[in-house]
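pls ignore typos typing on phone
magnesium ion + seq
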Amino acid sequence: MLYLKNLNYHPTASPTAILKSINLQLAPQKLGLIIGPSGSGKSTLLEILSGLAEPTSGSLFWREQELIPEQLQQLAGLVFQFPERHFCGGTILEELRLGHPELGSQRVKQALSEVGLEHLSLSTAPHALSGGQQRRLALAVQLIRQPNILLLDEPTAGLDWSMRRQLVNLLAKLKQHWTLLVVTHDAGDMLAIADCCWTLNHGELQSVDPEMLAAKVKEPQAAV
Ligand SMILES: Nc1ncnc2c1ncn2[C@@H]1O[C@H](COP(=O)(O)OP(=O)(O)OP(=O)(O)O)[C@@H](O)[C@H]1O
Ligand SMILES: [Mg+2]
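k done
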């Protein structure tokens, strides 16, 4: 169980707080979805959850234990927006083993099969993969570390309709084993597989019922 209590983030460079008294709970093997417009603080929240930034105040717990950023870096796996832009391995194998050369071929195979890429040769260059396959590889790069929570920043951005659908199906499968938190500005893709949902506006998080939101999204020109 991930638990955020009254979390605030107000870096000195910013005139206002970027995240304001965030309270959030996410149970294991659930998919949480945070929907917010550009600049609302989505990526900043994921940076804090992955230990890349430190909150100004408030607490973060995993189970009953309060965590510091170094522990979060171990616990969380963050998949950036457009993760393929950050690939730096020359082959799939190199990409998966970056930072963990000790990982055996069994772990490599397992990570690839979790994302449906087990049929690919390990010597394939990441940049030679299709857009959808690159996104899957980026997920495998995090899953191979076996994180307690997988954080995804706009996972379907820039994909065509059919690749988006495939990725959503994959995330639905992954939540059987993993805990996922997804942030997006576009509610449409992921609502059907979300177990819990929040909106984020100007750094304020509000819980919403995914089914109610799904009904709203279906209405023509509905504002979310
Ligand atoms: N370290 C910082 N110092 C000052 N301002 C910051 C800092 N980090 C983020 N911001 C500001 O915080 C706000 C939220 O940024 P963030 O990138 O989290 O938004 P977002 O919801 O991910 O937007 P997008 O959908 O465009 O990716 C922005 O106004 C940004 O300029
Ligand atoms: Mg962002």
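The domain at 2-86+148-218 is CATH 3.40.50.300 (Rossmann fold). The pocket of magnesium ion (ligand 2) is lined by residues 42-43, 81, 153 (CB under 6 Å). more later
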